[in-house]
Amino acid sequence: MVKVSIINLSIFVIWLFHLTGVVGILYFDSKWFLSATPINLLISFLLLIIVCWQTPRFLYILVLSFLIGFFSEYLGANHGLIFGNYSYGNSLGIKFQGVPILIAANWSIVSICSASISNKFSNNFWLKILIGIALALILDLLIEPVAPILDFWSFDNNVAPLQNYFGWFIVSLPIHFFYHYWKIEINSYFTHHLFILQLVFFMILLLKIKDLESAIG
């Protein structure tokens, strides 16, 4: 009963923070709400751990996705490898070697949530991997157009190249492979809510991109 209460409370918190964030960015003090992005991301990451940490081998995939995510972003931001030539802005918080620490946390969030959802679609090992990667790529497609406006990161000419999406596939592949190889089963819909919220958050910003540009100024 306590576990259910924690899950429900966690779902409520992420809905509150994401919806408040998108409304605040578009219609209120945009810069203040944007400055709170690291807090929102950190809370989502911590709640993911709190809800799922007792799941067998969850900590394995958490650490693996965090390390792979950070290392790939280090190669990308510093050497133009994997994703193309880009650099990070200041909206994602503290950086190490030019890479925000929280971007690695976001790799864990996106990878684990998309893999958890893909588990519901198929029992086929490779199909689950492909579905999970496809979900992650759909999210990235929504994020890329608004990322420079939000000062998350920017590519040359503010347009993500095809290499970026190929890079996402390559980086996501081992994470999703081991998620299903380790037969991780997250018995909570928190991951579904968190992934859907990220989709909704960036979809709204993309649909309101002109308003977003005016708000951020």
Descriptive notes:
It is a single chain. The chain is mainly alpha-helical. It is globular. It contains 9 helices and 4 strands. Helix content is 71%, strand content 5%. The longest helix is centred in the first third of the chain and has 26 residues, at 2-27.
List the main descriptive attributes of the protein structure presented here.
two-stranded antiparallel sheet, 217 residues, 5% strand, 9 helices, globular
Topology of this protein?
Blueprint: H1 2-27, H2 30-35, H3 37-52, H4 58-79, E1 86-88, E2 95-96, E3 99-100, H5 101-118, H6 125-143, E4 153-155, H7 162-181, H8 190-207, H9 209-216
Antiparallel strand pairs: 1-4, 2-3
Helix pairs in contact: 1-3, 1-8, 3-5, 4-5, 4-7, 5-6, 5-8, 6-7, 6-8, 8-9
Order of helices and strands: HHHHEEEHHEHHH
Gyration radius (Cα, Å) is 17 Å
Q: Beta-sheet strand percentage?
A: under 5%
Total helix count? 9
Largest sheet: 2 strands, antiparallel
Based on Cα principal axes, name the global outline. Answer: globular
Report mean pLDDT, rounded to a whole number.
94
**Which regions contain 5 or more consecutive residues with pLDDT less than 50?**
none
State the secondary-structure class: mainly alpha
Cα-to-Cα separation, first versus last residue: 47 Å
How many strands? 4
**In the residues, how many domains can be counted?**
1
Major beta sheet, strand line-up: 1-4
Helix content: over 70%
